[in-house]
Design goal:
222 residues, alpha/beta, Arc Repressor Mutant, subunit A, 2 domains, 4-stranded antiparallel sheet, 8 helices, elongated
Length: 222
């Protein structure tokens, strides 16, 4: 799950934006403090949404400090300053992209997805105490390594990448088993059951990997 830091001191913007990002499956932290945000490093978040008008520290200065600490960290600035010189100042300070207020969430969401793709492949996926280390091909639950098969690993990676969203059976069969049938295979159900058991997810009432009847499976974020 991608981690986003929102730096915005207007609660009428921050609160609905956090809710929308959560619905899209992101792990979101929010702060109104530019000084706190400027201490963030690349190990803490995957992308930053930065308001340029902050009470405690100018957003451009925050952007410069962040860029010095984390040269590759994607930064999207949120600004009411639409003039060309202001936008150029944001890029000069280290911003990767900008969205002008008031903005449509659909546009911001598209820019976030684009920046996360450009920032390179994930090395780790985390949600609800489940951690998948993509580089070492290992799975952990609450810090304890879990032994999984190759297909279980690939299934879990797909579900975690789409955490909070339903992944259709047909897509799982296509991406994990290269099977382009209608997704009715019992193989998938057996692998989901095995994965639930290994993760300690109660078979009768699973809370991690839930079934959406007639559609597919979802890795729950709450």
């Amino acid at each position: 799950m991608h981690r986003i830091l929102l730096v915005e001191d207007d609660p009428t913007i921050a609160e609905p934006l956090v809710r929308s990002l959560h619905r899209d499956g992101y792990e979101v932290h929010s702060t109104a403090s530019g000084r706190d945000a400027s201490e963030i490093g690349p190990a803490d978040v995957d992308l930053i949404l930065l308001d340029l008008t902050l009470a405690d520290l100018d957003g451009l200065e925050v952007c410069r400090r962040l860029r010095n600490r984390a040269p590759a960290l994607p930064i999207i600035v949120l600004t009411a300053r639409a003039e060309e010189m202001e936008v150029l100042a944001g890029f000069d300070a280290g911003a990767d992209d900008y969205v002008t207020k008031p903005f449509r969430y659909a546009e911001l969401s598209a820019r976030i997805r684009a920046r996360l793709r450009l920032s390179g492949p994930l090395e780790r996926l985390d949600a609800r105490g489940v951690c998948v280390d993509l580089a070492s091909h290992r799975v952990f639950r609450d810090g304890v390594e879990i032994d999984v098969t190759l297909k279980e690993f690939e299934l879990l990676v797909l579900l975690l990448r789409e955490a909070g969203r339903v992944v259709p059976r047909s897509r799982i069969m296509r991406e994990v088993w290269d099977d382009r049938s209608n997704g009715a295979s019992r193989t998938l159900d057996m692998h989901v059951s095995s994965l639930r058991r290994k993760l300690g997810d109660e078979a009768g009432h699973p809370s991690l990997i839930t079934t959406v009847r007639g559609v597919g499976f979802r890795f729950e974020t709450n």
